[in-house]
Amino acid sequence: MLRKRHWQALPQSRCALRARSASLTVMAVAACVAALAFSAPSAAQPVTERSKQKQAAERQRGELQQKLDLLKRDIDRTEAAKGSAADALAESESAISKANRSLRDLSDEQKQAEGKLAQLVRQQGELSRVVDAQQAQLSKLMRQQYVAGNEDRIKLLLSGDNPNRINRELQYMGYVSQAQAKLIETLRINLQAVRDNKAKTQNTKFELEEIAGEQREQKTVLEQEKAKRTALLAQLSLKLSSQRKEAGTIQRNEQQLSTLVDKLAALIEEQKKAEAAAREKAREAREKRQQERLARAQAKAAERERAAALAKAHSAPSPSASAAPSPSSAPSAADAIDDDEPPSQAAESNDAIPMADDDFGQPFVALRGKLRLPVRGDLVGKFGARRGDGGAWKGWFIRAAEGSEVKAVAAGRVVYADWLRGFGNLIIIDHGKRYMTIYGNNQAVLKRPGDLVKAGEVIAAAGNSGGNEQSGLYFEMRHEGRAFDPLGWVTTR
User: Fold this and answer.
1) What span, in angstroms and rounded, lies between the C-alpha atoms of 33 and 181?
2) What global pTM score does this model have?
3) How many Å apart are CA 260 and CA 65, to the nearest integer?
4) Residue 78: which residues within 8 A CB-CB, separation 6 or more?
5) FRET label pair with 179: which of 3, 130, 168, 196, CA 20 to 30 Å apart?
6) Neighbours of 155 (CB within 10 A)
7) Distance from C-alpha of 142 to C-alpha of 29, rounded to nearest angstrom
8) Can you give the pLDDT at residue 22?
9) CB of 301 within 8 A of CB of 308?
């Protein structure tokens, strides 16, 4: 009878062997985990993620900058005025603008990287506490297992005790082994998270070192270019003063700006048409794919219907068969899904690309009377008033300290950010519906062509580039290429 009971307990003995095997696996994995805990972090990659993203961004800007360079060269070829003293400052003032923009970008990157590093350090602390707690729990379980001894299961099977009690004990031991295995797997995952966190932290530190190195380089360039510009100004001061008083100089500069604005408007219109054509092409491709999916779904439905009809013809008729519904020839919603071809991401994301004449959140004309001054300062030159060096103002000149923040009066897209004769470091923003705002004589332009900007966002630093006598900002508003008075649009309070 006892032997019979032992034969009945064979399934339980298999459970015991599995539990013992699980226990040994637990101990082996625990040893691996302990080794992983002390493993060194992976070596840092020589190229950081920041460098890759930066290279990708530069490639994307390349095409637009190439178009703008061609446009500028075309304007220079048709420009009658040659040998302007201000042109000698162009290279130095452009380099100063570029260095200032790079320093500002690097400062923003540094803040983001420092924030990311602080977050990673916090996560590392939390993970370390979790890992320590799990390792302590695992050590306790292993000590208990060692004290109990691994032979307990064999002794239990050969004890000749009540099989029901043996079964309960073996199941309990199996649950304990499973819990241990689960704990070790969780610990392994957390240790991997610790290593990943260390790798990200190291990468972020490398990025900060890159940023610091680039900042030192840009500061050196900035100081050199400032010294170069100061020397040039000393050499050209008399020539600049005389040329500012020459009749026709202002008119030529204004004509050059008008030509630039007109060509930019044409470029924006061309981009708008290209984007519209791309959208239409994507829509047609999407419709074609839908038609192809529908045709395939209909073909599958027809094939199923033929197969069902064939099966019905070869089978004996039965009451249940006559009551069954016939398959529908129309494809279902599930049939319309094409499993063979993934949806085009380009077509789906195309609608997210803003077109050249978008209202950027709100129509520009609706902002009349609500715009703020682009820079804090004194309004010394008003639209239509006579200029001291001849001609009339086509915009406003706001006197401000060198380096003062210049802000976009409304949301839009930067379509020009470069040096232009008579206006120095110039930035032009398209606000949609052929409205543009122009910001000239800057010490530095802090945005690049193609950048989207929000109302109130810093886009430049005021200065006296382009041979201007006073430090400040030249601000102009245009619609369909024609300058108009900002009064009534921009509040001067």
Assistant:
1) 12
2) 0.63
3) 15
4) 259
5) 196
6) 10
7) 12
8) 41
9) no
CA distances from 150 to 12, 147, 156, 178, 237 (A): 17, 9, 11, 15, 95
Q: Tell me the two tokens of residue 166.
A: 């043996």
DSSP string, 44-82: PPSS-HHHHHHHHHHHHHHHHHHHHHHHHHHHHHH----
The rounded percent of the chain whose pLDDT value lies above 90 is 23
What's the pLDDT tens digit per position in 199-219?
888 888 888 888 888 889 889
> Encoding tokens for residue 415?
């379509």
- Phi, psi of 248, deg, nearest 5: 95, -15
Q: Tokens 């100004």 belong to which residue?
A: 233
User: β-strand 490-491 against 371-372: which pairing, if any?
Assistant: parallel
Structure tokens at 492: 């001067």
Closest CA to 227 of 82, 92, 397: 92
C-alpha separations of 464 from 229, 373, 392 in Å:
12, 18, 19
The bridge status of strand 452-453 relative to strand 412-420 is antiparallel
What does the pLDDT look like over 49-95, one tens digit per residue? 666 666 666 666 666 666 667 766 666 665 554 557 777 888 889 99
Rounded to an integer, the average pLDDT of 422-439 is 94
